[in-house]
Input
Amino acid sequence: MTLTRAHARRWLDRWDRQQEGYMPSREARFDTLVDAVAETAGRADPLVLDLGCGPGSLGARLGERLPGAAVVGIDTDPLLMALGAAAYDGIRFVDADLRVEGWSAVAGLPRPADAAVSTTALHWLPEEALTALYRELASVLRPGGVFLNGDHLASAEGTRLAALERALAVRATERRFPEGRPEDWAAWWAAVEEDPVLTDLHADRERRRAMAAHHGFESLHLETHVTALAKAGFTEIGTLWQEGDDRLLCAFLPE
Ligand SMILES: C[S@@+](CC[C@H](N)C(=O)[O-])C[C@H]1O[C@@H](n2cnc3c(N)ncnc32)[C@H](O)[C@@H]1O
Output
């Protein structure tokens, strides 16, 4: 059975709702992130790397607002990338594991990237892998290039600030979904598993997951990312947007 554009779009509309259950202002975060790329790219045809792109939700929004941008999305999930490739134009999906050194060579970039972006993806990486990833990223971004990471990046555990961030996140979700949260991650994947059009892709995903090391929630703190970015040579590291612990972190390479 063929995966058509209409079929993929239905799954990705459902993906967007599911993700909004965790980030009620996901679209506002995307908007600010794309604004920041437009402000910093320095050209109408920037080369943008999307780390942990999944089905290309961010790349699709970048393409709508910056039609000259060349977006290279990197991920390991064959099913999400296949949905994105069927649903959206203009994203080059690259199958590479960001924990494995050399992922940028797999991407085969034609020139240094003007910007690197990521949403809700890098919290899966343990601190050591995150630092190595940021070091490799610094080697493929142009001097002065920007990195923009939208993710749950909490303040230090046990502080009133962290508790307040959590409380505000709950309030924002209740305000956005007064009738209750949408379908969650597990329910979305359970529904995907039932779709005969996606059977082979789902089996491929399960095979790879069985082979891959465990994916946990490893780097959920702001400090972990700030430290790893500084070690990798990034400067001027700061928050551009925030709702609860959902944050858009920005960092620059020196000119
Ligand atoms: C919650 S999804 C977010 C996808 C997309 N960025 C979005 O905002 O909708 C997290 C993504 O990170 C990817 N990911 C996690 N660990 C990865 C790794 N080591 N290498 C490449 N991608 C990874 C997953 O496959 C998944 O697509």
Q: What stands out?
A: The first helix runs from residue 5 to 20. The pocket of S-adenosylmethionine is lined by residues 19, 52-54, 57-58, 75-77, 80, 97-99, 119-121, 124, 215 (CB under 6 Å). DSSP finds ten helices and seven strands in the chain.
